[in-house]
Every structure is written in C-alpha cells, then in structure tokens.
Design brief:
Largest sheet: 5 strands, antiparallel
CATH topology: paralog of FGE (formylglycine-generating enzyme)
Bound molecules: calcium ion
Number of helices: 9
Order of helices and strands: HEEEHHEEHHEEHEHHHEEEEE
Strand content: 15-25%
CATH architecture: Alpha-Beta Complex
Number of strands: 13
CATH class: Alpha Beta
Strand order of the largest sheet: 1-2-5-13-8
Shape: globular
Helix content: 10-25%
Amino acid sequence: MTGRSALPRPLPRPLRPVLGTLLLMLAGATAPWAMAQGNTGGAALGMVFVRLPAGEFRMGSDEPVDTLAAAYPGLERSRLEGLSDEAPMHRVRITRAFEMARHEVTVGQFRAFLARSGHVPESVADGTGGYGWRADYNPATTERGDAFEGRLPRYSWQNPGFAQTDDHPVTNVTWNDAVALARWLSATEGRTYRLPTEAEWEYACRAGGTARYQHGDDPAGLARSGNTFDARTATHWPAWRDQATAGDDGHAFTAPAGAYPANAFGLHDMHGNVWEWVSDWYGEDWYARSPQDDPTGPADGNVKVRRGGSWHTWPLYARCSFRNWNTVQTRYPLVGIRLVREVID
Ligand SMILES: [Ca+2]
Ligand SMILES: [Ca+2]
C-alpha cells in the first residue's frame, strides 16, 4: 500500500520514528451558506451545522513530485511519490446540498451521547483501551516505535494522556463509534446524520477553492489556519522538529474546537486538530474509476478513510487532498469525528 500510514502502526508516515481563500472574512455577511449558519442540530448534543450548496469541484491532486519537493523541502522523495492515490484529479459533482457540522465532535458532546444512548466506546467495550501521550515515554524503546503509548486500558476518549476540556475534540474514538453516534442521533431526531463521504469531505475542505489549504498553497501559512505539528508540538517530539509547521500555532496538543478561522464554508478545523473519519472504504486506485456524481467509495475494503490531518501532522499531510486510512476499530489520540446531516427539501 504505498507505505501509507496506518495508525497504530504507521500513523501519518511523518510520524514513523523509523523514518525518522483566505478566510472569507466577508462570508458571514453575504455568502449563501451564511443564512444557514447557527442552525442547531444534533439538538441533543448542541452541534451546529452549516448548509453547503450542491456544486462541482476538482477532487484530488496531480501536483508533480518536483513541485511538491520544492514546496516541502527536506522530505524523502518516497513520501512525495507515495501520494499517487490523490491522482488523477477528477471532476466530482455533489448533486444535493447537505449540512456539515461546523466543528469536530467535542469531548462534551461525546460524553452526552454516551450518557443518553448507553453506547459503550469500543476502546472500553473490548477492554484494550486506547493510546496516549506520556512525557517520559520514548518511542525508540518500544517494539513498534509508535509515537504514543498503548494500547492500554487507561487511555480512552476520556484520557489521551494530555489535558482536554469538554470543548476539545474527542479522540481515541473508532469508526464504529462514529457510526454509532450518527445512528443514535438519527433515531433520536428523525433526521439522517452520518459520516461525510470522502468526496463531501474534500468538497467541504476546499470550500470553492483549488489550493492545498484554505488559506492558499503556502505550507507556512498553516499555523494560522489550523492546529498541526508546529514548534510547540515539536518540543515533545524533537526528532521531527525539522518537519514542523513554520511558526507557532498556539497548541501543542488538541485545541478547543473552533479555535482557528473558519474556511469559506464556515467550517473550522478542516486542517488539523483531529483527523476525521469518513464513510468510504479506502481504494488506492479509486479515483481512476470513481463515478462523477456523489461518489461513495469502493463497495468494500479493509480500511476506512480519514481526512484533514491532526495536531500531530506535518503540513504535507494536512492538505485538503491528502488521504489516509485505518481499520474500523482503530482508536488513536489523533483521530476524531465530524458529522453531516442530510437536508430535507
Ligand atoms: Ca499545534
Ligand atoms: Ca480536523
């Protein structure tokens, strides 16, 4: 599989120790989607959804390796060649408007979901726990060289090892947990909540733009757009300091949801903070054969796609087009949830 990272083991490849639009400030006033902002849904949980219009976009990336090498100096060429699953770029039509949560699901929302639904998170139900950060943990001393300690029962959505409040994005949640949340909300409210498709997610991230990030193509601008592996995070993983996002984004671990500017659709944290599960199975060559209208991914597969990068992700892997994946049981301190809600028209 192109050496693409899989969490417990590989994590974003950048993290393998062995390898060593501008914010549309005006959008709120005049954009069509602005009218739907403040649309409270997931009512039980206080989520806020933004209506995204139907539309077309170019999905994926076909940037030449040399172009990427110039923009992301210091990375092994194999990492850049490994991005071939982002090609070919292809036109995708999202034929129906849909609503997407403005924020990642928070710890407080997940706690309320558990209390009201009786759902037991997979990390608790299977007794194996999750992963977590510990100041004196040294990846080099472990068999797998994982960036985080685990799995251990003491780590879960409640404890990723670093401090978090109810406003921080929930982590250590599996794809199965995410689907359980969406199903419970759907049953409770009589509306359809679900994970976004991979195409919907990228459409939402691009928000009408064509650049690598919501602010444009420059990786150095990322510290203002989202929470990634910046200088603060690098203080805890000094071996990867050279690959850190330029500057200080203000957060060494997760940031409270919505701490960074929204993109042109009014969505926060599409770059970084936590990876977001989507509904699609991963297909390495999927883009060469995916349908133009409302693609939903391969019919089956072994791993589910996650998107957007995290607080522990290098800039190359926080681009709108980057694809990563894990099994449905994977839980990790970098992976969270964002829901969509179908529109009733
Ligand atoms: Ca950061
Ligand atoms: Ca995110």
